Amino acid sequence: MTHLPEPSGKVKVLFVAADPFSEGKRSKSLLLDEEMREITQKVLATTHRELLTFQQIWATRPNDLLQALNQHKPDIVHFSGHGSNAGELILLDKSGNAHPVSETALEALFSTLKGNIRVVVLNACFSEVQAKAITKVIDCAIGMNGSGSFEDAVIK
Is domain 11-153 classified as CATH 3.40.50? Predict the structure, then answer.
């Protein structure tokens, strides 16, 4: 499939964040807002920053992800949050509690909505399994093969 950029020539990035374990305590939080700030600063420092557009969804539930992919039709999806060693990404339920999403469900989601999506970045512990499942339908996916810290995950 040949990728065609949107008519404006911009690459659309969808930043998806979920942290059900923060419980409002900054010390236990993944500091997703700081990660987004770091990404924004790096992009603003580039020569061709006007070629990227960012959309963000926070406290993401499974239906939010589905809606955002349909609405924004991104070229790049960047998920920041938790993964489990059982091969799941952790989103939120209606009460803000952990809602595991299996690799099979992610593969099905991306196979249905792949459209323009060229790259999926999973900035979550134990997300290598999900990345491998997503590459069955998307050209490139990046995940982590273990756990890490905020410092490991932030763009430097």
Answer: yes
Amino acid present at 8: S
Question: Which residue type is seen at 21?
Answer: F
- The secondary structure of the chain as a DSSP string is ------TT-PEEEEEEE--TT-TT-TTTS--HHHHHHHHHHHHHTSTTGGGEEEEEE-S--HHHHHHHHHHH--SEEEEESEEETTTEEEEE-TTS-EEEEEHHHHHHHHHHH-TT--EEEEESTT-HHHHHHHTTTSSEEE--SS---HHHHS--
25-77: per-residue pLDDT in tens?
444 457 788 888 888 899 889 898 999 999 999 999 999 999 999 999 999 99
- Domain positions in the chain are 11-153
Sign of CA dihedral 53, 55, 100, 154: positive
Cα 52 from chain centroid? 16
